[in-house]
Each structure stands twice: as C-alpha cells, then as structure tokens.
Amino acid sequence: MWARSGHRDFPCKECHGTALGGGVHSLKEKSMMLVHHFTESSPGRITLDERQVLEMMDNCRRCHGTEYARWISGGHSATYGAIFLNGKHNAAEQLNADCLRCHGMFYGGTIDSLVTPVSRKGPWSLRDAGRSGEPAIPCLACHRIHTEGSPASAAGYDDPGGIFYSRRPAETAAAFYDRYEKMYIRASALPPLRLREGTREVKVSDDPRGRICFQCHAPGAFHQAGSADDRTPRGVHEGLSCLACHDGHSNDAGESCINCHPAISNCGLDVTTMHTTFAEKGSPHNIHFVRCIDCHTKGIPPRRGARASGPDARERD
Amino acid sequence: MPEGSGLSRRDFIKLAALGTGALSFLPGCAPSRSREWIFLSDTDAALLGVVADRIIPPDSWPGGKENGAVRFIDTQLAGPYRRFRSDYRSGLDAMTAACSGKYGRKFESLAPQEQDSFLRAMESGALREGGWTGVSSGKFFAMLRDHVMQAYYGSPRHGGNPGYASYKMLGIDYPPLIGQNRYRL
User: Fold this and answer.
1) Which residue has the higher pLDDT, B127 or A153?
2) What torsion, rounded to 10 degrees, do the Cα atoms A4, A10, A11, A17 define?
3) Are B152 and B65 contacting, i.e. CB atoms less than 8 angstroms apart?
4) Residue range A19-46: average pLDDT?
5) Cβ-based contacts of A219 with chain B (< 8 Å)
6) Binary contact (B157, A190; C-beta < 8 A)
7) Mean pLDDT value across residues B102-114
8) What residue spans define the domains of chain A?
9) Which residue of A83, A93, A182, A316 has the fewest C-beta atoms within 10 A of its own C-beta?
C-alpha cells in the first residue's frame, strides 16, 4: 500500500522515526522488528503511539500549511484541557471509556488514567497536567497516510475529458481511526447513517466523507434524528452533506449560505441575514432543521412548476 | 526515562544494545522466501486459497480466499498460532500427497465436486488408508475450517475480512453509530 500511496516519496523515518530518534516506543518497536525478523515471527501491525502522532503533525504542517491553519481555527483542534476541564461538560456528562472514541483516539490509556475523578461531581482534572494543551483530535484521527493515490500532476490537455467530465475520482485519504481496533476504516467503508424522525426515514447524504462526521456526531442508539449528538440536516436542507456547508478542516460554515442563496433560493429571501445559528436554542431558523413552515407560517405556497406552466412560465416567475 | 513507559532501566539498556548491535547483521540479510507471506510458501498459500473457497464459496459476497483467509492464517501462524505450525506443515504435505495418490493431480487442479469429495473424506478421517500421514485428516480439516471461519467473520486486525466484508454481509454496522452526548449546546 505504501508504494502506491501519495506519500510514497517520503522515507518511512519521516513519520516512524529512526531506531534511536523516536523515543522509547520507537526503540522498542524497531528492536522487536529485528527480533521478529530473526525468529520468523510476525511483528504485528506497526503503529504510532500518541507521542509520535503528535510529533508527526509538524510533518503534516510542513506541506499542508493551509489545512493546518484551518484546523487550528476550528473546533476539531480542541485540546484535552478544553474538553475535560470544561465546567459545563463536568456537570452534564458521565465520563466513560467511550469518550476517548472521539476525544483522544490515540490516547494509549483508559479514561481513568487520563481524568479524575470519574464522576459528574468533579471538578475534573487531568492526571497529567501537561496534556492540557495537547490536541485530542489530531490530523491522523481523520486521515490515513497509507492511502492509495498519486501526487497531483499537471492536467493533460491532450485528453480534455480526463480534466473534466471523465475525470477519475481520487481515493480519498479521509478515514476514521478506530481506537479499539487500532486501525483505520476508509470513509467509503464506514457504515452509512440510517436515521429516522419518528417512523419517517430521513434522507441522508451518501457523501462518504460525511460518514466520518457521523461517527462522532451520531444519534442515540435508536437513531432518532436530533438525539444525542446528531446534527444531520432535515427540513429544507435534508439530504445535504455536512461538507456542503462545513469546511472539512475548520468546520467553518460562515460562507456556506452564499454558495446556494439567493441565486437558487426558492423564495428570494436574503438568508444570509437570517438568524440561523445552530448553537442557540432560540434560533428561529436553525440551519440544520429549518423547514418551509418556519417562514411560511400561513401555508406553504405551491412550487413554481405547479403554479405556472407553459412556455413563458420562467419569464413570469 | 519517561514516567509510566513500562520499561525498566535494565530493559532499556538491553533493547538499546540489541537494536544497535543487530544493525551490524543487516547487510548479510537476504530475502529467503517470497515477501508475500511470513510463514507460508507460495505453494502452501495457493492450496489454502482453494480450500478456503470450498469452505466458504464466493457468491455475491467474497469467498474465503478473497476475504483474507490465507493472510489470516499466515499472520496467525507467525504469531499467536505458532503452536499449529507443525500441524500445517504436516497437514498440507499430507494433503498434497494423498490427493496426488488418489487423483494423480494437485488439489487445485481438481473439479469443484472432486475437491468437495476429497474434503469430505478428509473430514471423516477416511483418508487414513489413502496415503495420509502425520496429523489426522479429521483434525486438520477441523482446524482449517475453524481458521477460515475465524478469518472470515473476525476483525480485520487479525489479518482477514478486509473492509469488514462479512459484517456488511450480515448487516452489522461497524463501528456502531451511537452518539453519547447528553446535553444540548
């Protein structure tokens, strides 16, 4: 896989370190590889510990500076301190092993070796205060480096189709790191979200990248829309991918409205001035759940096609 | 030494000596077998692939071979299943010899019906008189069947079932989609 990956021109030691340059984990790992080599046994899968993962982020940053800058400005750059020393979290959440599924994928210990006390009485503190500033969701939480692909190359103008309509989609490096299995599951292999609103099946985008979002922003066990941490769009935005509005790295959705409105707005409203905030309960047009009836309180007008027909219908509307 | 690393000073010195000392041996190393497999030979792997596809034949879902049975067996024989190495060596050799004695051909060259017939004879232990030596054919078949099943239905981290194909076949979502958030923003 490595030989076919987009990062194939980088030597292994760029990320995995040298036997003497990557700390105790690296020294132990490389020594055991020699032992396995001579005993004809399997070294198992080579993994990075959390220290190596965090150190490796400097390598990511070297080439992917823009993505890094976006990530650091967004919610997914949250540190252990921001998550586990948050008073609101303390009062509402019961710490459990599953917290680390999304908040500390690469942490090598258990929740009680990270935070104390394991209760809602709190206040929580980190057993190792030095971790407070470390990112809990590093680059490798959502990106698999050993992904088949090719470095970007110049467009071939002798084959215009290859640049436009018949362009082959590249295998995405987006993948979810499953800390229980200690392995990646590529985005397209993750399970799709089946969501219900009451008994109604909610249309969910089949954008594979969104499946990574659903892993953590997931509904409760009964998959009811809006339960637990579900933010899947319903109402007028039902079926849209998370990535249709949110930047993948910063999660910023500030410019997303203008991408579609008002140019194709059905109602002609300037939606960019509407109170659409998701984070506030009082938001009348919560962007994830806003429905036609929220604005058309006296009844939803028929669609243009149903209201007007004929060759000049477009001009009339 | 970082606190909580689980490595004593003595272990650290041993590992450092081993790591640096062993480097001097590396130029003398040369690949002694196919890099595809750790324990198995290419011949073993080819035979096991065909057997795996008779135990779990492919249909609209992958069969045993495509779903990583050989990779699983090879990985496990180089790890936790080292204790089965001699049984595999003996069993695969006996299988080749018995098949050659009975049909005059390799197992891989038989028609699917003949392969099934041979495997049934293996399972029942009826090959004892047919040139089978070493580990009993019934025990070897049971071990093969178990390992192919483990590969097919187990976690990919053990070497088989790439992409959780069998989970998808059974309609099991992995990882499960269950949110934990108990308060609203």
Assistant:
1) B127
2) -120
3) no
4) 77
5) 177-179
6) no
7) 95
8) 1-46, 72-140
9) A316
pLDDT, one tens digit per residue, over B123-153 is: 998 887 667 888 999 999 999 999 999 999 9
Q: Which one of A34, A193, A227 has the shortest CB-CB distance to B19?
A: A34
Question: How crowded is residue A185: how many other Cβ atoms within 10 Å of its Cβ?
Answer: 22
Could you give the 3-state DSSP secondary structure of residue A93? coil
Q: Is residue B7 scored above 60 in pLDDT?
A: no
Please tell me which residue of chain B has the smallest CA distance to A91. Answer: B183
* Candidate from B16, B82, B183 with C-beta closest to A92: B183
Specify burial of residue A307 (Cβ count, 10 A radius: 0-12, 13-18, 19+): exposed
8 A C-beta contact, residue B118 and residue B107: yes
Task: Say which of A27, A31, A191 has its CB closest to residue B173.
Answer: A191
* Cβ pair B68, B162 in contact under 8 A: yes
User: How far A262 CA lies from chain B's nearest CA (Å)?
Assistant: 29
Question: How is residue A17 annotated by DSSP?
Answer: -
Crossing angle of helices B85-103/B137-153, nearest 10°?
A: 110
Task: Determine whether the interchain pair A94/B5 forms a contact, defined as Cβ–Cβ distance below 8 Å.
Answer: no
The mean per-residue pLDDT over the stretch B25-37 comes to 55
Inter-residue contact A233 to A289 (CB < 8 Å): yes
pLDDT confidence of residue A8: 84
Name the DSSP class of A135. B
